[in-house]
Write a structure and sequence with these properties.
Structural class: mainly alpha
Helix content: over 70%
Number of domains: 1
Number of helices: 13
Mean pLDDT: 87
Length: about 300
């Protein structure tokens, strides 16, 4: 895991530098917007590190994943004097954030004591792996990857708003098309998360009540609906949202490649690693998961539907 984390941290530094090198310099307006956003990032990242270290709950970044992009995009909109495109982009991110926050909250991710709440089960599994025997190694991992890297990635996902700042290109039909695609992907994400939530809630309720489970629930993992066509429909939609979001900066600048692409690229890398880790756990836990992996593609519906 250390190798994966270090690789991701390296890409976090290398990708923005490379993309920035082949793009136009920042305008003063863009620099001012980024400066404010970096301050928010620094405070939020440090808060996540401190709280996770004190409480031993390492899902502090998870709590902010759907929340903090909203102030980032509205900061950019403010510096662009609330131009039509920036307001549209900010509204889309707000819709995405509200939906994802709702899903995280109903799964027990939030609490009145905001530093508590349900922790992602993968962190405890990861801590037990070789390489983290000494506490200082986990503290360093928490600082560099969980807190600093992931919080930086969240900021970078919203960078197309900064790139679009100061654009003279008026709002047009392609902005509307991109907006419709993003809304469609948000709906897919909502449906996928809802299907998973309902399945897991029913499965755990049957276990708790000691009732006999049908094969549908005995298999252990969500495998019908969107999950019958893709192993991670929610991850697919999440990546798609931010890839499509990048194209607002393309419309605003007329450049197909610009430095704000870094966030979307790094998100794809993160989800590849995250899904690899999750699936390694599921394959050990559920006997049918290996067949599920063979019969159903990871992110795109290009194989046959999974059947028990």
């Amino acid at each position: 895991m250390w190798k994966t984390a270090l690789f991701l941290i390296f890409t976090l530094i290398a990708v923005p530098i490379l993309t920035f090198y082949y793009d136009e310099p920042l305008s003063s307006l863009q620099r001012d917007s980024l400066t404010t956003q970096f301050i928010v990032y620094g405070v939020a990242g440090l808060l996540c590190f401190v709280l996770s270290s004190i409480t031993d709950n390492y899902s502090q970044v998870d709590k902010l994943w759907s929340v903090i992009p909203i102030p980032y995009v509205w900061i950019a909109a403010h510096y662009d004097d609330y131009s039509s495109r920036l307001v549209l982009m900010a509204i889309l991110v707000t819709i995405w954030g509200v939906r994802l926050t709702y899903n995280f909250g109903r799964r027990g991710g939030y609490s009145l004591k905001f530093w508590t709440g349900e922790e992602d089960y993968r962190w405890s599994i990861l801590r037990a792996k070789p390489g983290f025997e000494q506490k200082w190694k986990w503290v360093l991992f928490n600082f560099l990857f969980i807190s600093a890297y992931q919080m930086a990635l969240i900021l970078m996902m919203t960078l197309p708003t900064v790139k679009a700042t100061g654009s003279s290109m008026p709002l047009g039909i392609w902005d509307i098309v991109l907006s419709a695609v993003i809304i469609g992907l948000v709906i897919i994400e909502f449906v996928a998360d809802h299907q998973q939530f309902q399945y897991q809630e029913k499965k755990h309720a049957l276990k708790k009540d000691g009732k006999e489970m049908s094969n549908f629930y005995k298999v252990g993992f969500t495998h019908t609906g969107l999950w019958g066509y893709m192993r991670h429909p929610n991850y697919m939609a999440e990546q798609g949202i931010w890839i499509v979001f990048y194209f607002f900066s393309v419309i605003a600048t007329g450049h197909w490649i610009n430095w704000s692409i870094a966030g979307a690229l790094l998100l794809v890398l993160l989800f590849k690693g995250s899904s690899d880790f999750s699936e390694s756990i599921s394959a050990k836990k559920y006997p049918e998961y290996g067949r599920y992996q063979k019969e159903v593609s990871r992110f795109l519906p290009i194989k046959k539907k999974f059947k028990l």
